[in-house]
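Name: MFS transporter
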Amino acid sequence: MAKLATATKAGFGVGQIAGQLFRDVPSLLLLFYLTTVMGIAPAVAGSAIFLPKVIFGAGFDLAVGIGSDRMAARFPRRGWLIAGGAIAPVAMLAVFAVPDGSPTLQVIWVFVTFSLYMATFSTFSVPYLAQFAEMSPDPAERTELMAWKHGFTGVGVLLSSAAAPALVGYLGGDRGAYLVTSGLVGLVCLACLVTAWRYAARIPDRVSTGTPLALRDLPKAFGDRNFMVLCLSAVIMTVASGISYASFAFFIKFVMNRSDAFVQVGILSAIMAFAVMAGSPIWVKVAARIGKKNTYVLAACGHGFATLAWALLGQAPIWVSYGLAAVMAMFNAGWGLIVLSLLADAISDARERWGENRAGVYSAIWSMIEKAGIALGGTLIVGGLLSASGFDAGAAQQGLAQSASATAGIILSYAVLPGLAKLVAAALIWRCVGNQRQGMPSAA
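Structure predicted for MFS transporter:
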């Protein structure tokens, strides 16, 4: 089978920008917005986001995953990108368009609109991920495809974690600023998904991808040991990422004591984004030399230790934080790329061993883990930790400092817990995954 054209790989990879924006913008900004702008208590706001993200998000992911497998012969997976893209701008804007009124009304609004948001996210994210395992039978080329995907993750991080907060700050940081920003983000998502759909049409559909799983056959997925190990590592990493993302703005404002918090969020996120983009092709070469397992362990440990170091250096000069951000992101590019490559390998292996098309189901389960993990870490856990440590939303609205215990809770959330979690994930992969060497793919 001929290798895919570079332009096709890059064009399809653009779709990852939409996925990253949908994942990161609410994770980074929504809890901060609901607490410091709307004045909702952190635990209440976190619960209003967490429940639809886990309950409805899991159901939507599974339905789309099974449906896209069963409909693959009649309705190509790329068609789901257009369906999700059409709804994306409305879903993104609605989440932040919280009306004036009683706290109960506001919580209901967040619950309902975030449910719509999760349905939209599932519609395009699950089929998009599944397509990576079906584009090529060559493991080396699949790793290269994931490198393109992960490279565009850096672009998504740049937009979601640097450009979006900077725009909010530039527009004044009030409700109107969040509404304008979320509306523009939604339109960017639409453009990226249309681009991915257009380039996906250039990729030949696999003639035979195996028999699709029915809902009653779902337990078969949990009998695949390799896939389940990857899932467990993803649970650990996504919960940690959710905790860290949601605590980021709090850490900069109340631990680093930066009055220009949104400016620094933008600068630090831009540094991280460029490091991720630069690191992706490097980690492809590292994996070819030392194996996928060793690469994952190296990158996850590096990320964990750099995160823990930031817990001790929150009061250091700002250039120290810039350096730590670059180091963390470089290591993040490594384990993030490799775990997705291992996922694509697991999907291909299931097709070869059992003759079953599990791409949509495996991608749905993976997506469920990512979204639920981000929600658990970024809303419920962070909201609970901040409330338990004494974070005062009223004081935050007035621009006042937080107590020592609240500051300690923020440090625990942003650096300590996520740093330890990454070391645990590295140990799990080291113990349970066989080492895989891979031929050198062409540069991504």
